[in-house]
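Late entry, evening session. Most of the bench is empty. Finally got around to the prediction I had been postponing all week. Sequence below, unchanged from the version circulated by S.P.
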Amino acid sequence: MLNQRLQQKLLQKLSPQQIQLIKLLEIPTMQLNQRIKKEIEENPALEEGNVDADFDQDTDDKEEKEQEEVSIEEYLSDEDDTPSYKLKANNYSSDDDRKEIPFSLGSTFHESLLAQLGLRVLTDFERKLAEYIIGNIDDDGYLRRELDAIVDDLAFALNLETSIEQLEHILEVIQDFDPPGVGAINLQQCLLIQIRKRDKSNPAVVLAEQILADNFMEFTRKHYDKIINKLNIQEEQLKEALDEILHLNPKPGGGFADPRDQTNRPITPDFVLENINGKFEISLNERNVPDLRVSKTYSAMLDSYSRKKAKKNRSDKETITFVKQKLDSARWFIDAIRQRQNTLLVTMEAILEYQKEYFIDGDEKKLRPMILKDIADATGLDISTISRVANSKYIQTDFGILSLKSFFSEAMQTTSGEEVSAREVKSILEEAINGENKKRPLTDERLTEILLEKEYQIARRTVAKYREQLGIPVARLRKEL
C-alpha cells in the first residue's frame, strides 16, 4: 500500500563553492596558474585584469564604451524560434576516429632501444622477439620477467614459437645497447656488463670484475676482510677496485631523460619569508597568478537584455540563463581564489608565530613539537583545512626552500621532562652518524646510548625508525675502508 508522509532531516552538505575552495586549497602555486587558465578558457565571463582598474578610467570615455558595448541581441539569430532539434547535426558515427595533431617530445628510453635495434642485422622473426623483450624491460633498465614466461607469452599472444636459447641470444644483443647494463636480469649482471666494457689494461678494472663475478655476496654485505683474504690482495688494491665499481650505474634506465617525466621539475615556493631588520614579513608568491575580474561585456549584456520589455521566447530565456550562470560561476571562482589566498596567509602566519625561534636562523634543534591541531586552534580553522594547506606547499626562507610538512612533528620527552620535537632528535642522530668512524660505524644500540647521554630517552626500535626515515642504512652498510 502506497502512502505519502512528511519527513524532516538535518543534513550537512557542501555547496559547489565550498567544494571548489577545498580543491583550490590543495593545489600548489604552480598548478594554481594552470587551474586559472583552464577556468578562463572554459568560462568566457571570466577574464584577466585588475578589478580596481575599472574605477580609474575617465568618465569622458562614456561614448566609446557605448560603442564597444555588445548587446545580447548580437548573439541571437533571427531564427530564434527555430526548434532546437533543427540546429543540431547527428551525422557522425561512434566509430569515427578523433584525429589529434601529433607533436614531438623527443625519444623515450624504450624508443631509444628500438632505434638501436634498427641498426642491427636481424631476421624478421628475431626482430619481433627483440621488440617483445624490449617491451618487457622496466624503466630502470632491468628485464625482471623470466625467459620461460616470455616464451609462453609469445606462443599465446603472438603465435610465435621460440625457445629460451633463442631468447638468450637476442637478449645478449640487447645487452650490448646503450646505456651500458640495459637488459640485465639482476644487479650483479648489470654491473658485470658495464665493467666488462671498461679498459681491461687497468688492474683495478680486472679486480673489480673478479669481485663482482666471484665475490658479489661479500661485496654487497661489505665483508671486505673476507674479500682481501680470499683474493690475497692488499687493502689499497681493494679500494681502487671498489672505486671502479662505485662509478657504475645500478639503474641504467633511470639515467635516461624521459621528456614526459615531471618528477624532477624545480620547486616553486608558495610563500616568501623575509627577515628585515629582525622583523618577519611573509607574502604569497603570486608572480604567475593573474588578476581576475568578471567580464564587463557579459555583465552589460545581461543587464541590457534584462531591461528589455519585449516578450522573450524560449531561446532568449536559455541565453539569459547561460549568461547568468557564467557570470555567477566567474564571481564564485574569484571569491574562492581570494578565500584561498587569505586561508594560506592566516595558516602560514600561525606557523611562523609558533616556530618563531626556528625561523630566526633555521636551527632544527629549535623546532617546537607541533601538530595540525595546534595550528587549527590558533587560526580557528578545521584540522582538515590545515592539512590541505600544508600538503604540497613550500616556503622560501633565507636558509632554503622548505616544505610546510617539515614544521610538523610529534612531541618527545627528555629525561628531565622537557618536550622536544622529533625533528630535533633526528638532527642529533644525523650529526652523530656523519661524525662517526666509517671503519667502525655506530650501531643502533650505540646511537641509542648517545641519545640517552644527551637526555633523550628513546628506544632502539625508534632510533632505527628515525634512521630509516633519514634514508641512512644500517651500520654494516655504512662501513668503508
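Two things to note before I forget:
Residues 271-407 form one domain.
The chain is about 45% helix and 5% strand.
Will write this up properly tomorrow.
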